[in-house]
Predict the structure.
Amino acid sequence: MSHIFAIVFSLLLVTALFSIYSNFVMRFRLTKRESSRDKLVWWRVSSDKVGEMYQELFPKSFLPLSGQFTFWLLIAVAFVVLFAAIWKRL
């Protein structure tokens, strides 16, 4: 059982790190494209807003989907863990 936990935890960790990395890449690229004097505007808005704008500017990029994928993966893993805990109690 501990091997399964280690594998799932490692996969979640790698996915979370990829999501963080992709968020930083999107913010850096949007900051470089910003024409106003306030270059830090993309560091003050939510990740959803950054993802929406990035999708508009770079429509073929998969980076905005990484945040959504990480969120739904976390929800799915939490559901599986909850289901397994309930199943084990029965």
Summary: The longest helix spans residues 2-33. DSSP finds three helices and no strands in the chain.
